[in-house]
Amino acid sequence: MCASEFLPFDGDIKISVPPEVYRLHSHVVARRSGTLNRAIEHARENAHPCTDPVLIEMDLVVVPAADRRYGRLEIEAVAGVPQRAQPADLLSPKLRKIWGNLIKSLSGQTPFLKPHNPDLPGLAIRPDPDEEPDDILHNSKALITLAEELEATQTVFSALEDAFVDLGHDLGEAVAEDPIQWLCISMTLRESWIFKDAACHVVGKWHNLEPEVKMSIPEAARRVCQSYSDELVQRCKAVEDFFMTVEFEPLENPGSSDLLGLSPHMWVALTRFREWVYVNISLANGFRGEDGGFNFYRYMYNEDDEYDEDWVPYLMEDDCPQEDVDEIHGYLHRLREFCEEEVEPLLESNVSHSTGRYLTCTEIKDEDIPWDDDE
User: Fold this and answer.
1) Which domain holds residue 57?
2) What domain of life (predicted)?
3) What is the CATH number of the domain that holds 93?
4) 203-214: pLDDT as tens digits
5) 238: burial class by Cβ within 10 Å (0-12, 13-18, 19+)?
6) Which end of the chain is more exposed for a tag (fewer CB within 10 A), N or C?
């Protein structure tokens, strides 16, 4: 994004983002930024007595600052009278993009949050070593920071909402990459969709998050995630209890070799199936595991070829003659079919994008969005 993308007009406020220059109207800027409004008023109050304050032009420039990550605005000239002793340094492409997005927002346009042509090396922005990446997350965070510093949150946050709509699926991918930071952003912007999407990801990862990571989440959002995580654990526990107690219906006409209405093949299948479940749970492959049971539950669900080939519980050599193996395998698959209906809700996804190996079945309710709790 550059100054040439703006519609040409002769504004009385010139903002330099070296080497680029933007012009805006003071009455628009003053209405949308408390900080700039005070700067404009100060310039008019201190102008030459013979100068019409309404016609005063003011030049602002973005300069690097040790106490501001993205630099700060300083008055360069008022009514043509220089206010700075030396010209401002050129800014990095990353900083120029960040400030260009802010100025776009103040002028009623939509900021550009995506990376600049990442597939074209000559046009891509390569941040300096101490700068943040050029991506949707960090460009959004930078714009929020500048909006707060310039007291322009209402205008900039509204522009961000428009930018998020334009991003479409790209926003879902960004949230999936770092849901915790997006959860924090959603609390700042009061963005319900982002909150629900990010919270669903976070709940699926909750069991693996370090305490300090959990504490980095705003308290109100943290309570929501903890509550839904507790609920998810109970759902998983109920499903695993079902796995461990699943059984066949007794045969209507059992034979002489059948026990308690089940054939020997059924008993072998049931024994090995339950043993397989017990072993997986004891090895922390269930909801207490690193993936929250994701892979274990996928193995139990037989509509995914990736998991369907090697899920079958093992058979011991002395379990049965070789000619009986296929029949026992058939009963094993029947047991898994009994479990499908129980496990299927855990494998549903309520996020817009996910490639992670964790559960994203949580559906955050509207009444649990905690805007009021974080005031």
Assistant:
1) 10-79+89-114+133-166
2) Eukaryota
3) 3.30.710
4) 999 999 999 999
5) exposed
6) C
